[in-house]
Amino acid sequence: MSALQGVKVLDLSRVLAGPWATQMLGDLGADVVKVERPGTGDDTRAWGPPWVEDAEKERLDVSAYFTCANRNKRSVAIDLANGDGQELVRQLAAQADVLVENFKVGGLKQYGLDHETLRKSNRGLIYCSITGFGQTGPYAQRPGYDFLIQGMGGLMSVTGRPDTEPGGGPMKVGVALVDLLTGLYASNAILAALQHRNRTGEGQYIDVALLDVQVAALANQAANYLVGERVPSRMGNAHPNIVPYQDFPTADGYMILTVGNDGQFARFCEAAGHPEWSVDPRFLTNAARVVHRDALLALLRSVTMTRPTREWVRLLEEAGVPCGPINDIAQVFSDPHVIARGLQVQVPHGEGADIHVVANPLRLSATPVAYRLGPPVLGAHTQEVLDEWLQAGGSR
After folding, report:
1. What is the sign, positive or negative, of the torsion defined by CA atoms of 195, 200, 203, 209?
2. N or C: the chain end with fewer CB closer than 10 Å?
3. Orientation angle between helical segments 382-390 and 83-95, nearest 10 degrees
4. The domain over range 245-327 is classified in CATH as 3.30.1540.10
């Protein structure tokens, strides 16, 4: 039995943050019904190329982007701008345990699909709203996008090379990290609300904002400012609190060196042929190494450039010093450890294609993740879901 077997999730969200949250719930066994606009569906269905292809290499009308966040869901095509469609969604919401939406603040009230309206017929409904800036505050009515929030929320101020270096300036993260983190925070909140409802029978309203999540995810950088009262800056691949903890040039490319304590630093120095560095007062402790960062980095780079990356990885792995290469995505999925962990799985698509997707990283011993459904064809389950969810009629 799956952990969330029997939990019904009505997904009115689109693009990434909301679908990421509901995919997590679906992976854990919930019955996720994705409500989409007839004809076009979720915006990301059109965000290609690349596109999914069938066995004959014919393009199917779904982008690779859509497949990353929409497995283990059933698609229902309903027009929310239509009175009959609104009534259908109200009926589905009356049978749901969870509803997830990412419309603008107040956007669903005009359809009678807001929390206050729906809870009248379903007191146990857990209603999760995901927006850019939350339901309150001076920015509440603004639309929010991941890139925008990475800038406003401080992430880009600490990502990228310093302004004084070539290529310096603010840089966004290479994936929509704020959307993904927001989806994870939302799914955590939903699980907590389900536990609360199990005890009390009452649902609740969940307000999740991209900006809130981004600020929370500043983690140690925010703590450095709040405690030290110094504004963190961009440091490229360096770490503000740990040295050495960054990329280093090798004879044939680069490697990542992540020395987390003084013992690891001593072992690195021994392996590199310079044990004297580990007893140098400037480098004896991490705090000292942070102060004398520039001097140490110059010494390390002069040595790391003498061997190729693979040789450094082998040597330092034997010495118990964390290090590794900088892989591209193809190298990631050909890595023997990634293969052994099963991080690529194949799921069926309703138009006859098998799709490769990234596996859910959760490993649960008693209720493992199951890949029951591939990303759905638009509206493929409309009648099936209406028959199943509404056959009893009335409220939960």
Report:
1. negative
2. N
3. 50
4. yes
**47 close to 70: Cβ distance less than 8 angstroms:** no
Predicted pLDDT at 1: 84
Residues pairing with 11 in the sheet: 34, 100
User: For residue 101, what are its two tokens?
Assistant: 């939406």
Given the residues 179, 247, 280, 335, the one annotated as active site: 179
Tell me: pLDDT of 396 over 60.
no
Which contiguous run of DSSP H or E holds residue 126?
strand 126-131
- The set of residues, in sequence order, having a beta carbon less than 8 Å from that of 245 and lying 6+ positions away, is 238, 239, 257, 258, 259, 260
Token digits of residue 1:
């039995």
| Contact assessment for residue 43 and residue 14, using Cβ atoms and an 8 Å cutoff | yes
Report CA torsion sign: 363, 366, 371, 373: negative
Determine whether 212 is an active site residue.
no
**pLDDT more than 70, % of the chain:** 99
pLDDT surpassing 90 at residue 26: yes
Band of residue 168 on the pLDDT scale cut at 50, 70, 90 = very high
**pLDDT score for 392:** 52
**pTM (2 d.p.):** 0.93
For the stretch 38-59, pLDDT in tens is 999 999 999 999 998 877 777 8
**Domain ranges, ordered by start, for the chain:** 8-217+342-390, 245-327
Structure tokens at 242: 């740990």
